[in-house]
Every structure is written in C-alpha cells, then in structure tokens.
C-alpha cells in the first residue's frame, strides 16, 4: 500500500531505522524455517538451562504438525493453546501454523468460566493444554466443541537433574512438583504427539494472508473478543521491531521471555522477533527475579521486553544480591506508563537503554515506540513505527482531523493492523473509519493523544473504559457480570484507579440487595472463584445508588471521578 499521508515523525527516527519495511511475503512458518536452515546448530530455546537448537526445534515442529494432522487438524481450523511459557508452547505454536491452522492463545490461569466463554466463541475442537488445566477443559459442558486434548507436562522440558530433584521425597520438592504438573486421564500426552514422523514436506503450508492467530482482547468496546491476526500482520510487526533496533545482530542475540506468550506483547516482541532473528530465546514460566538473575550471570539479554514493575523489581533484586546487570543492551517497556524512577536506575545498572512503546492487541500489537537514541522523549510513547500511519481526529466525528498539536482520538493503519474480530462483523465495523484515499481503512484505538511538532505521541486519556493493570487488559463489563452473580449484589460498576505499581487497580462500586450486609472480603473472595487474579477488584466500595444516563446506563466515568474526588 502506498503511503499518502504526511509523516512528520520520520525526521525524528534514530540513525539506521528505515522509513518503511518491505511487504511481507512469507508466513511465520517460513520465517522460523529460515532460521532453522541458517542457524541450525545455534541455541533456539533455553528453559531452566536446558537448550534446544534450531535444528532440533524444526524437527519437533514437523513431528508435532504431523501429530496434529493425524488428529484431524486442517487448514483454517482453530486450535487452542492453554500453556505457560515453555518449549512445548513454542513447538505447538509453529506446528499449528505449519498446517495452515489458526492458533488461539489462552491464559492458563483463567478460571473455568473465563476459559469456557472463549471456547464457546472460537469453537476449537483440538486443545494443547498444560496438564494443570486439563480437568477444567474436560469439565466444559457438552455444547463446547472440544474433541481432543493434548496434555503437556512442562517438567519434561527441564534438565534431567531438575526433574529428579522435583521427585525427591521431601515437602518442598512435592510442593514445587504439584505447582508444575499433575496426573491426567483421557488425553494424548505431548510426548506421543511429537513421536510422529515429521510431516511430509510437500503438504502445503499457510500463506502470508492467512489468519495465524486469534488473540482475545477487550478491544475498544469493553467486551472480550477475538482479534484475528494474519501471518502478514504478525510478521510485519516483527519486521518493524527488527528495523527499530538495527544494532541487534541476527544469529547472536539473546531475548528474554518473561512476558507470557498468550499476551500479544510477549508473542511478538519475544517469540516472533526472536525466531525471525535466529536469537536464543530464554523462557521463563513466570517472572521470578532470582531465576532471571541466575541466567543474567551467564548470558545477559540483548533484547528484554517487559513492563515497568519487572524492570523495577529486577533492578532492586540485582542490587540486593550483588548481581551485575551490565550488558543488557535494549529494553522496551509497554502496557503501562514508564516513569523516570524506573528508567534511571535501570540504565545506570545496565549501561543499556530502556524506552517506552505503545500498542494494542488488534495491531499485533506494537504501533509506536521511542527511538533507541538520545532523541527519545520522556512522557511520550514515541514515534509511529516504519510503514505506520497515524492521525488525530475528533472522537465524535472520526472523519474530521484535529489541528496539529490538538488532542483527539488516535486512528492508525499499517501492515500490522488486523482486519477484524472473529465472527463479529458489527463490532469490526464499529472500530474502522473508511479511508478516502483508496488505502486501507483506519482503526480507531479509543485513546486520546496529542502529537508534537517532532511527531512524538503523548497519550492523554482513554475513550474506552478498559482497565490496564500490570500490563493486562480488564473489561469492566466482565468483572461486573461476575460480581452481579453474588447473592448480595444488586448492581455494580467497575473502574480503574491510578496505581503506582500496576498503572491502574481494579475497583468495584456495589449496590447491595435489600437486607444484605456489606462484606468486602466476602465479595472479593467470591470474585476469585469467577475471575483470574488480576481481574479481581483490589477494593470494593458500597454506595446507595449508581449515576446513570437518561436511558439508564451506568456512567462509569462519573463513578471513577467520584472515587478520585472522595
């Protein structure tokens, strides 16, 4: 697509960063195959110090793809992954794509209710799941389409000595093992799936235009929905990330994956970026400063995507333990504001650079980032990436542009922007603005921004009522639905309030039924049974009534303002 809009920010790009990327002709399967061929003897994955080379990874992908084919997976079929960060997750992701099927990522810590709603939406018949969540999936009602479950014991990817220690007859070992794995029945074990012969090389794989991923997001309208991202979308975003950091060399870099792969941020800036670069991808099932510092001593990351609390905790842990962070080259932070109180200690400790970026799941996800250069600007999320166009428009009439420098809604287009939500044409139409120049339509981000004379973008506010806590999106409507199921709650409103540690905290305001007694702890305990931990309100406030519009809609913004003022 030819770019026809002005791009004043190009003059602010760091040296060596191109204005545009080449159109993506290859699928994600082609990208990983290229690294397998070029860097076969290089380490592709590291997990608790056990390594997998690119040649070994390629072989496992081909065997898992054949195993899935024998389970009946065909091109265009959704296949659900419910896995933490582990080598099996990487193999499963690319094995599904090798068949031209569609990966659907899920948070393995979701409650049964949360998982069931997503499965009802996408309809996957085959699931590759951490054995700790298998029973949850097996308990789904009969109208959920699951036919085959491949169970994954993550401990089997660990070194032999680590696995042996987990089997010691001591309480701590039993506790650690119970947190990582459990016995299940009625599934195909992962080891059987990858025991297949490699898939026939002549079986046609995906094209760049095929859908690769369904990424669930609360979107700009508040209710979770599946953003459909193509191989081209995800490959373009990885190419944009590579272009943004030209100093990182192919085949020699080290990328740390402390961000979960089921999150769009971790999927692109950790997985797709690393695999396309021939990098060593170090996998962490969760962020544990002690575990990360153990790896830093041997080979610090060249590229470290994360969120502000992770940088803060790691800086403090390294200082307390006397571990040097020198050699960490580039860190890119997203999902929540990055403060100088985090940046300055990190850069002093590492000698590297920490910059902020911005994106949405619908955009693969990265749209904007600060240059990795002295020209970066604190208080902004940076500049649009190569081949990305942005405009600032009137949120009430998104066909009208704001004057330069004025605040307005950010709308965007580029090769990383999705084409729509899974099976939701009305919701899709609502988030696009038709183009009048023959180019692609513009995606409405729902964020209010201002762009300065040099092209740096500053996020001012959100039109959407989405809450972002610790880098994760929380839809107020989803939390409200769960709370209304409590027998004492008549109605409620859920909002996000500023929090220094997580960016925002989830707060619920409830109206009780007649005769009920307010018990904040009991309401929060109830919510824990319905929602994953980061969605559970940190505070519950009782009120007599909620502010409403003339048609009876609860006015969350007024609720939020009242809490801030009170």
Automatic annotation (TrEMBL):
InterPro entries: AMP-bd_C (IPR025110), AMP-bd_C_sf (IPR045851), AMP-binding_CS (IPR020845), AMP-dep_synth/lig_dom (IPR000873), ANL_N_sf (IPR042099), ATP-dep_AMP-bd_enzyme (IPR050237)
Presence of keyword Ligase: yes
Similarity comment text for this entry: Belongs to the ATP-dependent AMP-binding enzyme family.
PANTHER family noted in UniProt: LONG-CHAIN-FATTY-ACID--COA LIGASE, NONRIBOSOMAL PEPTIDE SYNTHASE PES1 (EUROFUNG)-RELATED
Single Gene Ontology MF annotation: acid-thiol ligase activity
Matching NCBIfam families: PRK05605.1
Keyword annotations from UniProtKB, A to Z: Ligase
Protein name as catalogued: Long-chain acyl-CoA synthetase
Organism classification: Bacteria, Bacillati, Actinomycetota, Actinomycetes, Micrococcales
Domain AMP-binding enzyme C-terminal: 478-553
């Amino acid at each position: 697509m030819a770019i026809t809009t002005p791009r004043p920010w190009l003059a602010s790009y760091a040296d060596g960063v191109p204005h545009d990327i080449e159109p993506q002709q290859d699928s994600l399967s082609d990208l990983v195959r290229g690294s397998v061929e070029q860097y076969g003897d290089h380490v592709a994955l590291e997990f608790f110090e056990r390594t997998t080379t690119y040649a070994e990874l390629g072989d496992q992908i081909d065997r898992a793809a054949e195993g899935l084919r024998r389970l009946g997976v065909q091109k265009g079929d959704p296949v659900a992954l419910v896995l933490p960060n582990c080598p099996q997750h990487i193999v499963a992701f690319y094995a599904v794509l090798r068949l031209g099927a569609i990966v659907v990522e899920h948070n393995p810590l979701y409650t049964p209710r949360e998982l069931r709603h997503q499965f009802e939406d996408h309809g996957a018949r085959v699931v590759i799941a951490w054995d700790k969540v298998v029973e949850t999936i097996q308990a789904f009602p009969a109208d959920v389409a699951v036919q085959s479950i491949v169970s994954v014991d993550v401990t089997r990817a660990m070194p032999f000595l680590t696995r042996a220690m987990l089997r010691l007859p001591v309480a701590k070992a039993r506790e650690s093992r119970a947190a990582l794995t459990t016995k299940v029945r009625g599934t195909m074990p992962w080891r059987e799936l990858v025991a297949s012969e490699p898939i026939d090389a002549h079986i046609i794989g995906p094209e760049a235009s095929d859908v690769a991923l369904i990424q669930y997001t609360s979107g700009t309208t508040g209710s979770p929905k599946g953003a459909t991202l193509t191989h081209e979308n995800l490959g373009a975003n990885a190419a944009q990330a590579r272009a943004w950091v030209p100093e990182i060399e192919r085949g020699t870099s080290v990328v740390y994956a402390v961000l979960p792969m089921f999150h769009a941020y971790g999927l692109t800036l950790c997985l797709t970026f690393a695999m396309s670069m021939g990098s060593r991808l170090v996998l962490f099932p969760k962020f544990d400063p002690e575990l990360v510092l153990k790896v830093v001593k041997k080979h610090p990351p060249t590229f470290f995507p994360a969120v502000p609390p992770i940088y803060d905790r790691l800086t403090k842990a390294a200082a307390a333990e006397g571990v040097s962070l020198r050699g960490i080259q580039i860190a890119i932070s997203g999902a929540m504001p990055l403060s100088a109180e985090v940046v300055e200690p990190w850069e002093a400790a590492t000698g590297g650079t920490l910059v902020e970026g911005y994106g949405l799941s619908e955009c693969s996800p990265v749209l904007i980032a600060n240059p990795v250069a002295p020209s970066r600007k604190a208080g902004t999320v940076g500049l649009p990436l190569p081949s990305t166009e942005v405009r600032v428009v009137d949120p009430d009439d998104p066909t009208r542009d704001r004057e330069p420098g004025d605040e307005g809604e950010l709308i965007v287009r580029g090769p990383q922007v999705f084409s729509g939500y899974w099976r939701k044409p009305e919701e899709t139409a609502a988030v696009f603005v038709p183009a009048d120049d023959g180019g692609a339509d513009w995606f409405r981000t729902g964020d209010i921004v201002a762009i300065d004379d040099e092209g740096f973008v500053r996020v001012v506010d959100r039109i959407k009522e989405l809450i972002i806590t610790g880098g994760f999106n929380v839809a107020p409507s989803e939390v409200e639905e769960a709370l209304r199921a409590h027998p004492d709650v008549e109605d409620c409103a859920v909002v996000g309030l500023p929090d220094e540690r997580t960016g925002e905290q989830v707060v619920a305001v409830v109206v009780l039924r007649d005769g009920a007694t307010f018990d904040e702890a009991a309401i929060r305990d109830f919510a824990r049974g319905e929602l994953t931990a980061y969605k559970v309100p940190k505070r519950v406030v009782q009120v007599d009534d909620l502010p409403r519009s003339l048609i009876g809609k609860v006015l969350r913004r007024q609720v939020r303002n009242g809490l801030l003022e009170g």
